[in-house]
Structure formats: C-alpha cells, structure tokens
From TrEMBL:
Protein name: Putative agmatine deiminase
EC number: 3.5.3.12
Uppermost EC category: hydrolase
InterPro entries recorded: Agmatine_deiminase, Peptidyl-Arg-deiminase_porph
GO molecular function: agmatine deiminase activity; protein-arginine deiminase activity
Keyword set includes Hydrolase: yes
Amino acid sequence: MVKTWRGAPAADGYRMPGEFEKHAGTWMLWPTRTDTWRLGAKPAQDAYRRVALAIASFEPVTIGVNGSGYEHVRRILPDKVRVVELSSNDAWMRDIGPTFVKNDATGEVRGIDWGFNAWGGLNGGLYFPWDLDQLAKQKVLEIEGKDRYDVRDFIMEGGAVSADGEGTLLATEQCLLHPNRNPRLSRTEIESRLGRCLGVRRIVWLKRGLADDETDGHVDELAAFAAPGIVLLAWTDDPGHSQYEIVREAEAALEAQPDARGRRLHIERIPLPDPIVLSASECRTIDRAAQSFGRTPGTRLSASYINFYFCNGGLILPAFGDRRDREAHARFAALFPGRKIVQLYTREIALGGGNIHCITQQVPAGNRE
C-alpha cells in the first residue's frame, strides 16, 4: 500500500541520486497539445516514440497517455514499452512527474510530489489550466507503488536542478528565485527546503539559464553533473552567439564554488548548436489559444546538447541538424566510454520548448531492482 508522508525526506535518510546512477526504469508522457506542438502533435509524437524506443533498449519505459489516445499509442509501440492511461495537460515528465529519492541503508525509493504551476502560474506561465499535471506525480507513484512525500506547497520542477548524488545541487537563481515560483520564501529558505527534501548540503548557484529558455532558466539546458565533481557546461567561443556571455558567467560561478565535499568542480565544455528559430510555415501549423504561450515567426528557442538523458549503459543525445551535432557526439563518446551514445534528431521537441531530458524522468534502482 502506498503511503503519503509529510515530513522531510532527508530526515528519513533519503537523498536525490545522480541521474547517472542505476535506474529501475524511465517515465514519459505522450504529447497531444496542439497549441504547443505543430501539425496536431504528430511530428512531436514521432520524436517521442524514437526517444522511448532508444531508452527501452537499455531499461524499462512507461508512457502515460490521455485516455483517447491509449489504443493508438499501445498499437504503435512494442510490448516492452508499458503504456498506461494517465491524463496530463502537456508532456514534460521531467517537470510534471515526481522527483525520486533513495534511502541507501534500506534500498527503498520514494517520490516527492512538488507543487507545479506550469512554469510561472498566472505570472508568466506557459499555459492554463495545469490541473491534470498537478495530479500526475501522485498517479505515477501509485502505479510504481512508491511512497509519496506531499510537498505541494513548494513549487519546483525537475529540470530546475541537477544533483551529483553526494549532496550537491546545480541550479539557477533566475529560476528557483523567480517571484512566480515561491515568492514568499527567501533564498535561504529555498536552500533549506531543498536540503530537507533532497538531502543536499550545498547548492552551486548559477545566475541565469540560457537565453530564450521559456522555463525561466532551467539548469538542464546549461549544465549537468556527469559524475560527482564533474560538470558538463554548454559552451561557445563565438562572441556573436546569443549564449556567449551567459556560459562564461556560468563557468566563473562553477569555478568559484566547491561542491558539498569541498572539491573544486572539473568542467567539461560541450559545444552549443545554433539557436532554434521558428519559421513562418512552422508557426502556421501550431494552434492558437488565449491561455498558452505564443509562438510567432522568428521566435527563438534555446537548443543544447546538455539536455540529454542517462540510461543504464547508454546516453540519449539530441541532434538538431546542426554542424556541431557530430562534434557533440564525439565529445560525449570520449567522456563516457562505458556508455553507448545514441543520438536522435529532436528538433520537433525543441520547437515545443525542451528536449530529451525534459520529457523523461528516471526511477532510481532500489533494493527490489
């Protein structure tokens, strides 16, 4: 029986594992929102399907689908991908789904049910309503049979943080301190809350995320832990690139702050592709709605190879049809010789405002896996 807890996970011996640690499986959601995804979401669905199949070659995958789409999705995916009916307003499982924490002494895994307000609520949020999204975390935990920490009074998205599994968290001030998330809490109070929930002792703060990121600067486009003490950082040497100043500012911040164990962070630079720019033809195929984020010709969206996904023995990497795709693959292959690098063309996901990391959520392996 799944139990709901209202205490602090860290006090109960739980920590947020690094994403590079062993998984029991991966969760995703099926995209259908036509004011986010063009052409009735069909191109995005093709991209999501390719991501799901790639991950499923390494570990179990579950996809949540709105009821009307269940039969179709079940028919187009192989039996090794579990398909469940799970309603949502959109398909960003990283932010809509629970954050899993693990007790190393017992091997038990539980999930945190954060508050969610569609990246800003009525003050800059990306759509309204988000009522179905708010229930998704609890539903995932019920299906997984994992106990749930009720932390809905605190707004947090999974893409806003990256953990090293040893007490250090990467985050941006732009996102976590934004007044449209937790306006009544000070920086110190937010740090304390994340420490009590995720078992982290130090937050390495970066000032802002990438330009043109509509989530208010999620860290998962800019920087991510590759392992304890090692950070992958999006990078460009082109002074004309829109991210040139931002990545240098981030590198300086990473160099100035040690991790929770007092180590100086080692930084690996990962080349940035050119920004995604919406064309007039693409915009014409996106539905218009008063309560959703507008997309007009010339709208720029951030693109980054940092928005990748670890899975057991593998790593799923974005490609954009960019001249740096091949270089990015070579960099990841050199950095992770023990993992198979699978690179997928994901421009359609980027058009929606995210990428592979944003649409996935790992379940850490516990004592039963």
